[in-house]
Write a structure and sequence with these properties.
Elements: H1 4-33, H2 36-44, H3 48-71, H4 82-98, H5 105-117, H6 121-146, H7 154-157, H8 162-179, H9 181-192, H10 197-212, H11 220-247, H12 254-268, H13 279-290, H14 296-324
Length: about 350
């Protein structure tokens, strides 16, 4: 009988086996349609300068995300160090990549920040809600900007203005909650009053910590800085696929890069394969076909290069982060993540 403990022990090996199987299947599929030599030739002709620029953009994006997250703890004691936020973020991205069919990177981020700073899980969860809301707002703005100028698949066109209205509405709600914490706590006390005393205490601590995670929204200057950083992150998300066009001499535009960013982001958002193999590449290739690129070798070469530029830095940084935080795969289960202020699980 396989226990939960033994399952967690074999989890990374199962991931490795599944990833290897997917890579072999992908290579076999490509070789059945396109000459691997032709794909290799496309990759070899890629401009080293533009490829390095794309890697730099990816690294800068991670740095800006870590800085933005650090700023969401304006009153934390001890203060959140940038290095702590950076490595916790890197660990979260890594876990989201390598754990198949699940998205537990946020659990890993809570774990890492708690271990390094003793930050409570509830407070960190509050900051993650703000972060994801900001990302959704600017992703929605990207879609709204692209829609009037380009054809998009039906499943992207249907949401319409909701892709920006709903995240903005959530941001407004979070902003109001940040200024009405006393009222929220009083209402929460009433809501949980029928529950057992110990459960009430735990839920109240969790709610208070979560509201503390919204502290950045009480500082208007800080909100402006968070919005500016989010805008920069959104711009870099489009710039990265764009700079790889001249790297492979592809006659495509910024609009095509924005479309690739949108469709790839939507494709990899749900839980999927380890390291997003196949899903990421397929979405990028699909949009290149939609943009009128018919050279299969060029399509495959670009999809592979974009994948490597985006994924390889996250895996490399994630491995370092896992080593620094003494991450163990048993920690992917939410029950193993502390919510108290203790410095270790």
């Amino acid at each position: 009988m396989v226990t939960g403990k033994s399952w967690r022990h074999y989890w990374p090996w199962l991931n490795l086996g599944l990833t290897t199987l997917l890579i072999v299947a992908r290579v076999w599929y490509l070789s059945s349609r396109i000459s691997l030599a032709a794909i290799g030739a496309e990759l070899l002709k890629a401009s080293a300068g533009y490829t390095a620029l794309a890697v730099a953009i990816m690294a800068l994006t991670i740095v800006l995300k870590a800085w933005r997250w650090q700023l969401m703890y304006p009153a934390e004691h001890p203060p959140i160090r940038f290095t702590s936020a950076f490595w916790a973020l890197s660990l979260g991205q890594y876990v989201n990549l390598v754990v198949p069919f699940l998205r537990l990177g946020e659990v890993a981020r809570i774990y890492a920040l708690n271990q390094e700073n003793g930050t409570s899980g509830g407070r960190t969860l509050g900051t993650l809600v703000v972060e994801k809301t900001l990302d959704l707002v600017f992703f929605g703005l990207t879609i709204i900007f692209v829609l009037p100028f380009a054809f998009l698949p039906d499943y992207i066109q249907r949401p319409g203005a909701l892709v920006i209205i709903l995240p903005l509405a959530l941001l407004v709600v979070l902003y109001l909650l940040a200024y009405q914490t006393d009222l929220v706590i009083r209402l929460w006390r009433k809501a949980i009053s029928p529950l057992p005393q110990r459960l009430q205490i735990w839920l109240l601590k969790l709610a208070v910590a979560g509201l503390e995670g919204l502290a950045a929204l009480r500082n208007r200057r800080l909100i402006l800085l968070l919005l500016m950083l989010s805008l920069m992150i959104a711009i870099l998300a489009v710039a990265l696929p764009y700079v790889l066009f001249p790297a492979l001499d592809l006659p495509l535009t910024v609009l095509d890069a924005a479309l690739i960013h949108i469709v790839v982001s939507l494709a990899i958002a749900p839980p999927s394969t380890p390291a997003k193999i196949g899903v990421f590449n397929g979405a990028a290739a699909f949009m290149l076909w939609q943009s009128g690129l018919t050279d299969e070798a060029a399509v495959a070469g670009y999809a592979i290069l974009l994948y490597l530029v985006v994924v390889a830095p996250q895996i490399a940084l994630g491995i370092i982060a896992a080593s620094r935080s003494k991450w163990r795969w048993r920690s992917v289960l939410p029950l193993d993540v502390p919510i108290s202020g203790s410095s270790s699980p």
